[in-house]
Amino acid sequence: MVDITNVEIIAERTVRLWFSDGSMRVVDLLPYLWGPALGELATNNDLFSKIAVDPEIGTISWPNGSDLDPDILHGDHEPASLSGTAIG
User: Fold this and answer.
1) CA 59/CA 71 separation, integer angstroms
2) Measured between alpha carbons, how far is 74 from 9 in angstroms, rounded to an integer?
3) 87 contacts 80 by C-beta, under 8 angstroms
């Protein structure tokens, strides 16, 4: 498992992520921002802009308690929502 070590917003819902294995990825988060916990982040610019790395869980998170799996953001696993199984 890799952790996210740094995040930078580079466009509306696109971020640059640095990982503990030394890699970096640019990720459009919009496809992941749906459902009760994450949906508000798709439309609320102020809330989305508060993205931060939570070092305790090794991923990005927001003040509303939302976070995303670092393994999916790293590209190691396909999100369950894209494989036909609904998330949360």
Assistant:
1) 9
2) 16
3) yes
Cα–Cα distance, 39 to 34 (Å, whole number) = 4
Does the domain at 4-81 match CATH 3.30.2020.10? Answer given as yes
Give the integer Cα–Cα distance in Å for 58 and 34: 21
By the 8 A CB rule, do 63 and 47 touch? yes
pTM: 0.84
Sign of the alpha-carbon torsion through 80, 31, 55, 87: negative
Nearest-Å Rg of the Cα atoms of the chain is 12
Q: What is the pLDDT of residue 78?
A: 61
pLDDT tens digits along 31-81: 999 998 899 999 999 999 999 999 999 999 999 999 999 999 998 666 555
Burial of 16 (0-12, 13-18, 19+ CB in 10 A): middle
